[in-house]
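Bench notes, afternoon.
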Amino acid sequence: MNPLAQLDHAHVWHPFTQMRDWLKREPIVITSGKGAVLRDTRGREYLDANSSIWTNLHGHNHPKINAAMARQLKKIAHSSALGLANEPASLLAAKLVEVANHRSRRREKVDSTSAAASRRRLQKVFFSDDGSTAMEVALKLAYEFTRRTRGPKTKPRFLSLAGAYHGDTVGAVSLGHIDLFHKAYGGLLFPTEKVMAPYCYRCPFNRASPERVDARDYRKCNWECVGQAEQKFSAQKKRGNPFAGFVFEPLLQGAAGMIPQPPGWLRRVTDIARGHGALLIADEVMTGFGRTGVPPVSNQSAARAEQEVRARRDACPTLFASHREGVQPDFLCLAKGLTGGYLPMAATLTTGKVFDAFLGRYEEFKTFFHGHSYTGNQLGAAAALASLEILQGDESGRSRILVERTLAAELKSLWSQPKVGDIRQVGLVVGVELVRDWRTRAPFPLQEQAGIRVCEAMARRGVLTRPIGNVIVLMPPYCATPKQLRRMVAVLAEAMAKIFARRAGR
């Protein structure tokens, strides 16, 4: 066994990992990477098919981000944000406010309710360390804002989706509804409400029989999921304590199994939430920074890639999933891809109205009593500024469109696999749900570890990803080439054929 692997076995406790199983085999030890390729201690190469757990946007070892961090290192790596400001964090906050309001500014020009849009303008940025802390910040701010606006005796309540995962801090775990992750900590948590997610493939209200296309495309329902959300908000209002906030991942839920929302669902449900006075808390830790793509352009004359990039950007000038349905949240929570996948850094954006509720004389103690030692870290902010510059360039736009189109074309071949139940793609994110029988949607029991075994077979063939239960995730860096993308999908097909043929005894 490699000496580094031995050290890992001796001392490292890995997240979301059954360590008894981990210690039975030699782990892959990554030593370097370039673009979409990772290399291990033995010199083997792997395609990074999940962007190093959904963080890496532009590829590993990107020269522009490397250069930005090198320049910053010549100045300073970190200084405290408690009582001090710094250059890159200030610039980054301004840039995040700019891109987070791009869509709403465009709407204000033609929207007669521009005063309301202005009130919802995201103006303030609170920096933290990761997705969990970004959500914790939003939760605490929303909780205290509600008490200060509805009265100190108010007991704020929050609504989130079934299958929700919003992080691992106690507050963020309380917002989640995945028993596998959260049940063990029940004694530490505060109660929150949940409402059904629009999981079209397994929706009890979907009357359609299984077909060999994305379940959203053949569903037969009457938007019962929206009706259930309306009932939840109405029932809570009748109790005299309307929900303080509605927490959601826009367009798709990640850790729930890459569950996509059908077009129109997000706008309908957030309109209901606003109508009942709830704050909108958008968890874009995974969906932010271009992951969910942009809507196609109806103008077919934009045939060339350069024209299409600009046309798409004009049609929906945003990097965030919420904006694709015209939803502007009161809290926008960002992490993962914020620094391009280089350093742990997060941000929670909110409105001036929320910020003003925390202003007062020193002795009034209206301060937001929350913070992190590395808040506004200069190296992270420098990497994030470079990443945003890359994202807003035409080259990145062309790459994202190419990745989205190539994946869509290649994924069609997987429908021939009898253990594929559903293939879900939103932009540059793919979830392939494995089932025992696609005709009945019968799932694999978790103890069979179908997803894990397929991903292990993929790793042996040089493609790295991690399953969510029985869902195989493909979420490549934006720099992945068509050849690399075809290889990712082909290896997934090979792995499924091998694993399930073996299971059948052939």
